[in-house]
Amino acid sequence: MDHHYTFHHELTKLNKKLLKLSTMVEERVRTAAQVIESKDQAVIQALIVSDYEVDDMEVEIEEDCLKILALHQPVASDLRFLIAVIKINNEMERIADYAVNIAKRVDNISKFNHPAAISYDFSKMSDKVVSMLKNSIDALINKDVKLARSIFHDDDIVDKCRNLCYVDIKERIKKDPEHPGYHINTYLLARHLERIADRAVNIAEEVIYFVEGTITRFN
Asked: Domain limits at 197?
């Protein structure tokens, strides 16, 4: 079989695997965002026990990348693609871990005996985080640098939401010092969401690198 054909066939298969992983991770983040509100125990447990699926695919994709690098020694845009895939693959796995952390955190919160507690509204923040992840994946699929850069602005919005949550939770602890664990766990949900947004920014940076060949770091 023609060496050139084999190489690009493997790149195509790799791209499909990465997109499959991206879809899996996006679904988990959407589920995690929903479970903050629903606190559905069945969904929480399903999210936690299915984490191995993402881990397994992440390892498979990394091994494919290393095999292609060793056998074909790609250059130029093909090399940039493989480097981007390796980095994005890792980001996706970490995002899935944060989704599981959210599920575990919600599970902990639901076990606190605090019937008078007022739930914190994460809807604005979680909607923005889900949107950022979706846009980073769309930017990757469509090689859309403009869309990738728009994610940088969205990250500022998520950071502000996290900061507002921090201020609010501090006040709640002052007024309700008997239940610090409940409130701290609530704030940590904001931290997990913010870290997913940060990873979406990292993916956007890798899309820009892959398409333009320039290293971009949002600060």
From this structure: 3-212
